[in-house]
Amino acid sequence: MPDVFGVIEEISLWGYLIRTLIVGVVGFFVGRLVSRRSVSQLTTYDFALIWILGAITVSPLLDGKVSFTYMLVPLLTLFFWHIVFSLISLKNRRFSFFFNGKPAILIDNGRIVLKNLKRQFINVELLLSELRVNDVFDISQVKYAILEPNGFISVMKYDRESHVTPKDLNLPVSATDIPLVVINEGKIVHENLKEFQVDEGWLMSQLFKENIADINDVFLGTMNKSKKLYVLKNENN
């Protein structure tokens, strides 16, 4: 039987196959031992831990001079500190925020929090796409949107959007459409205006009705096929 556990200058084919099998078994137990939170809801600390564990686990396959002893020692050390940090995070709120991160409010009571969007490197298109993943196609329905430490965005709609639906009352409904962005951070999206067969002059007249004279005061503007305009102003306005 070829030597597979120690330091090997040149690994034979059988030795490599046996090492692969052992690494596969070790990788399975690594996945089982890491907390389920780390697998289903990756925080920054969890992501770094799993990335490092993966690199250490496959190291005997990448370099024959790396013995399994060299792999197991740092592996067990990281598991130990992972458990210690997890237990401290359960007891200490500040420590938990430091390692797992804090939730970031992206939409607060219907208003987009620009500083949090910029801090998280999220632009309008990305925010709208994340809302669509949450089954929200019209941003005017959103009361709160929170970026969680695991990277997911939680969405709370206005109460008026959670009332009895026409389906509950067996009432007919008209087809809905997806609003398009016509103003993006103070810039007009002309191709979307053409979709609704309106021009910049019409748009500015609608903004004037909302007491908005300068397009730069608008962070986001959306419009549906009924030409209903929804506007979110910049924080300073």
TrEMBL record:
<protein>
    <submittedName>
        <fullName>Uncharacterized membrane protein YcaP (DUF421 family)</fullName>
    </submittedName>
</protein>
<dbReference type="InterPro" id="IPR023090">
    <property type="entry name" value="UPF0702_alpha/beta_dom_sf"/>
</dbReference>
<feature type="transmembrane region" description="Helical">
    <location>
        <begin position="42"/>
        <end position="62"/>
    </location>
</feature>
<dbReference type="InterPro" id="IPR007353">
    <property type="entry name" value="DUF421"/>
</dbReference>
<keyword id="KW-1133">Transmembrane helix</keyword>
<feature type="domain" description="YetF C-terminal">
    <location>
        <begin position="91"/>
        <end position="223"/>
    </location>
</feature>
<keyword id="KW-0812">Transmembrane</keyword>
<keyword id="KW-1003">Cell membrane</keyword>
<comment type="similarity">
    <text>Belongs to the UPF0702 family.</text>
</comment>
<feature type="transmembrane region" description="Helical">
    <location>
        <begin position="68"/>
        <end position="90"/>
    </location>
</feature>
<keyword id="KW-0472">Membrane</keyword>
<dbReference type="GO" id="GO:0005886">
    <property type="term" value="C:plasma membrane"/>
</dbReference>
<feature type="transmembrane region" description="Helical">
    <location>
        <begin position="12"/>
        <end position="30"/>
    </location>
</feature>
<dbReference type="Pfam" id="PF04239">
    <property type="entry name" value="DUF421"/>
</dbReference>
